[in-house]
Amino acid sequence: MRAFGIVADGGAGGRRRPSRRRVMAVAKSVELGYCLLEEGKSAVDAVEAAIVFLEDYPDFNAGTGSRLQLDGVPRMDASIMEGDRLRAGAVAAVENIKNPIRAARAVMERTEHVMLVGEGARRFAVASGIEEGEVRTARRIEEWKRNLCKEHKHRQLLESIYGCETVGAVAIDRQGQVASGCSTGGALFVLPGRVGDTPIVGAGIYADSSIGGVSATGLGEDIVRVVLSKSVLELMEKGSSPRMALRMVMNRLEKVTGGRAGAIAIDGRGRVGVWHNTEFMSYAYRMSGRKVKMGAGVK
Q1: How far apart are the C-alpha atoms of 38 and 223, rounded to whole Å?
Q2: For the chain, which residues make up each domain, given as ranges?
Q3: Residues 216, 168 contacting (CB under 8 angstroms)
Q4: SS3 track for 126-137
């Protein structure tokens, strides 16, 4: 029987060890996705379901829990890709959408485009029946005001960027289709309209069913510079295991850019890889015939 399963992450680079509640939430998202795969649903369905759950969980920097940019407005990015035909969809700098990953899937399946941005992306999402949602919760606004008034040191600024708690997932289904996706509220205090790696195919995500799939998390600018997800798949195509390929690309990222990131991957044989050069990274995965495994990714 062909191996099937799913891996998900809750972001790399937080300043503190992820709470058990946050790790359990990632594990729950994996169980939701795995149940769909077990029923015979597609890898795209599983990835979307896992990420929707995490977007709705306010502890993560995606969907409902999105960070506020410098002007106090949350702008979200998301993407999804299926590896059979290399179809992909993404939204960037979109506001007031409850689940950006659903909008990204709509772009992939209902248009000839790969990415929509800003107000155009929001209007398309609403027209496609995607639920609207006010992200600026009272807790996020107070956090934004409190932190904005502080005199940040350089390290604190870096930590606010790295501590993203963005979310991602990669799955392989019973038919061998691979899909990957990710969703983020970006980084705290960035310039309005800033877009990181999440919606960029080849950087934040990539999926090719003949090889595998990857989803990245961390400082987006550096992930884009090394085209992280596509670079990992190229090494996997040459025979590297997902874990080895992730480690090699992450080492290059750190050496060349000084960047900090994490990523998850699955190959066509159902092997899972998790790697990060940050101190923490919450993740969970479950493959057919096995129980769910989870961790905080402590280095």
Answers
A1: 33
A2: 5-295
A3: yes
A4: HHCCCCECCCCC
How do beta strands 115-117 and 87-94 pair? parallel
DSSP letter string, 194-239: ---STTSBTTTEEEETTTEEEEEEE-HHHHHHTTHHHHHHHHHHTT
pLDDT on residue 244: 98
Which range among 63-67, 91-95, 185-189 has the greatest average pLDDT? 91-95
* Mean pLDDT along residues 236-265: 96
Q: How far apart are alpha carbons 285 and 6 in whole angstroms?
A: 6
The residue whose two tokens read 């597609």 is: 42
> Of 152, 170, 144, 165, which Cα lies nearest the Cα of 83?
170
Binding-site entries: 194-197, 217-220
Residues at the binding site for substrate are 194-197, 217-220
pLDDT in tens, 54-81: 999 988 999 988 888 888 888 999 999 9
Which of 166, 184, 198, 278 does the annotation list as catalytic?
166
Which residues, other chains included, contact 263 with Cβ-Cβ below 8 Å and sequence gap of 6+? 214, 215, 216, 217, 228, 229, 232, 246, 249, 250, 273, 274, 275, 276
257 CA to centre of own chain: 21
- Is 257 a catalytic site residue? no
Helices (H), the chain: 20-38, 43-55, 100-110, 118-127, 138-148, 154-162, 220-225, 228-237, 242-257
- CATH homologous superfamily of 5-295: (Glycosyl)asparaginase (3.60.20.30)
